[in-house]
Amino acid sequence: MGYSLTWLAVRGISFPAAAERLGLAATGEVADYAERDVSARPVSGDWSLVVARGSDHRIAAARQLAALSADCEVIACSIEEHVMYSSCELWLRGQRRWRVVHDAQEGIDHLLASGDLPDDFAATRARFADQQDAEDGTDVDLYFEIPLVLAQSRVGFKHDEVNASEDHEKFQVLRETSPSADDPRRKPWWQFWR
After folding, report:
1. Per-residue pLDDT averaged across 114-133, rounded?
2. Alpha carbons 51 and 59: distance in angstroms, whole number
3. Is the pLDDT assigned to residue 192 strictly greater than 90?
4. Is the pTM of this model over 0.70?
5. Which of 33, 50, 150, 188 could tie 168 with a disulfide, CB 3.0–4.6 Å?
6. What is the distance between the alpha carbons of residues 194 and 11, in angstroms, rounded to a whole number?
7. How many Å apart are CA 182 and CA 61, to the nearest integer?
8. CA 57 to chain centre
9. String of b and e for 145-158 (b: at least 16 CB within 10 Å)?
10. Would you say 158 and 147 are in contact if contact means Cβ atoms under 8 Å apart?
11. Is 91:68 a contact under the CB 8 Å cutoff?
12. Pick from 34, 8, 5: which is nearest to 23 by CA?
């Protein structure tokens, strides 16, 4: 079974402020990594990490990231291992600065990159492209790693690696505080036209 996750790392504002902007609140419960719908923990370098199940969770919607990053730095990742999709993006002062996406459904060497890419992008891409070429026609998808390694080099977190210095069993469980206007849970079931 593969991961289907969205995760954000926020630096420059307190975790309670970030959670409030995301419409989340702590429950007081603790859980293992990726065991609950949304959970959080601090990571190295003053980052607050929020992990949500599902590769298309609302916390990584462009409108949400613009509001969240108004006065801080946000790295956002989306991972869908079932179809080998991964993305990473940096948001600062309410704007996306760069984005890197791999979608194996578009091709094993698919990579979409936009914005003011980080300095290590070219070297990271070249390293994985060389490794992919060495696989010579196998089903191994190494381009999938490129967005994730770019995020890891900034935040120190990668969804499928256990960092010995981090305790993956102590994620704080979060709950939704208020559904967004476009959230179907906001309207009564019988008012499907709204």
Report:
1. 97
2. 9
3. no
4. yes
5. 33
6. 37
7. 12
8. 9
9. bbbbbbbbebbbbb
10. no
11. yes
12. 8
- Say how far apart CA 142 and CA 129 lie, in whole Å: 8
Flag whether pLDDT at 181 surpasses 60. Answer: no
Please answer whether residues 12 and 73 qualify as being in contact, where contact means their C-beta atoms are separated by less than 8 angstroms. yes
d(CA 21, CA 103): 29
Residue linked to tokens 């194996």: 104
**Site of tokens 């990159």:** 113
Distance CA 76, CA 69 (A): 11
- The mean pLDDT value for 164-182 works out to 71
Q: Which long-range contacts (CB under 8 A, 24 or more apart) does 79-82 make?
A: 79/3, 79/4, 79/5, 79/6, 79/7, 79/55, 79/148, 79/159, 80/2, 80/3, 80/4, 80/55, 81/2, 81/3, 81/4, 82/2, 82/4
Q: Give me the helix-helix angle, 145-155 and 121-135, nearest 10°.
A: 140
How many C-beta atoms surround the C-beta of residue 44 within 10 A?
12
- Whether the CA torsion 118, 124, 18, 183 is positive or negative: it is positive
Provide the pLDDT confidence category of residue 146 given band limits of 50, 70 and 90: very high
CA distance 3 to 30: 20
**Residues 46-54: what's their mean pLDDT?**
95
